From TrEMBL:
The lineage of its organism: Bacteria, Pseudomonadati, Pseudomonadota, Alphaproteobacteria, Hyphomicrobiales. The keyword Chaperone does not apply. It holds the Pfam family BKACE. InterPro entries: Aldolase_TIM, BKACE. Keywords: Metal-binding, Transferase, Zinc. The keyword Cell membrane does not apply. It comes from the Bacteria. This is 3-keto-5-aminohexanoate cleavage protein. PANTHER family: 3-KETO-5-AMINOHEXANOATE CLEAVAGE ENZYME (PTHR37418:SF2), 3-KETO-5-AMINOHEXANOATE CLEAVAGE ENZYME-RELATED (PTHR37418). GO terms for molecular function: 3-keto-5-aminohexanoate cleavage activity; metal ion binding. Its cofactor is Zn(2+).
């Protein structure tokens, strides 16, 4: 177990619409929300990029200039903070994501470790969106790993997993020489067509990950996800939440800021008898450059 718990805050995400939810979009908004999360104990900020035009904040962006502006604003607001950059894309064109990592050199970036049928069904038994494939073929993973190596960026292997095979694939990436650095797993749980947000799954996932690897859980859902956060804290995992993943605390309270969610994670860590890692300590734990 890691005595210190590193908290990551996922500030916005790609699906949350700022017209419907209080998610940050502009550099100023991202910095304000990052500061609230930072003050509550988060050392790492996971960022997604949105188009900056007033009516297009619900749409993703891969503009390097937008990434640079957002990262600079967050770093100025949160001294010593670690940036974790999104790379998630569907389809054959992911050059923009590669460019953002190459040009901005974030300390950490997501590296989706396998493919997933990304599905959700509404209460009326129709698709919430047209069924789609979140495709992450080995060749695509290799492209990301190659760029991250050049940028000095540590990959965080995202395991959505419609089965536990994606977790096992990460070990194969290192076994075959695709990647040779420190391993970080992010078990993404709660996607409707992926792993459920079930605390009882964690011992199985931990049995299958590389023994020397760090791990955390991304829990997607409402108030029901908080027992999973607590179990992750109890088992020595690092913690993540944010407006990308949920809008609710364990008692059903709807939050208005990322800071409230980070406060909830910090409470989970303390109930497990663990302290919260500072940014300096988080860099030491993950081997992030200073």
């Amino acid at each position: 177990m890691s005595d210190k718990a590193v908290i990551t805050c996922a500030l916005n995400g790609v699906l949350t619409d700022p017209k419907q939810h209080n998610v940050p979009v502009t550099p100023e908004q991202m910095a304000r929300e990052a500061r609230a999360a930072f003050n509550a104990g988060a050392s790492i900020m996971h960022i997604h990029l949105r188009q900056q035009e007033a009516t297009k904040g619900h749409l993703p962006s891969w503009e390097v200039s937008v990434s640079k502006e957002i990262q600079q604003a967050i770093r100025e607001a949160c001294p010593g903070v670690i940036i974790n950059h999104t790379t998630g894309t569907s389809g054959p064109n992911y050059q923009g994501a590669l460019d953002c990592v190459r040009e901005t050199k974030p300390e950490i970036a997501a590296c989706n470790a396998g493919s997933l049928n990304y599905l959700k069904v509404k209460a009326d038994n129709t698709w919430a969106w047209p069924p789609m494939m979140f495709d992450n073929a080995v060749e695509k993973v290799q492209d990301y790993l190659d760029v991250m190596k050049v940028a000095g960026t540590i990959p965080e292997f995202e395991c959505f997993g419609f089965d536990v095979g994606i977790v096992r694939c990460v070990g194969m990436y290192r076994q075959t020489g695709m990647y040779s650095g420190p391993l970080e797993y992010n078990f993404v749980m709660g996607v409707a067509s992926g792993m459920p947000a079930d605390p009882e799954l964690l011992p199985i996932l931990l049995k299958l990950k590389a023994p020397d690897a760090h791990w955390q859980v991304t829990a997607i859902g409402r108030g029901e996800i908080w027992p999973l956060h607590q179990r992750a804290a109890d088992l020595g995992g690092h913690l993540r939440s944010g407006l990308e993943d949920t809008f609710y605390l364990g008692d059903g309270t709807k939050v208005t800021s990322n800071g409230q969610l980070v406060e909830g994670l910090a409470a989970c860590a303390r109930r497990a008898g663990r302290e919260i890692a500072s940014p300096v300590e988080a860099r030491q734990i993950f081997g992030v450059r200073h």
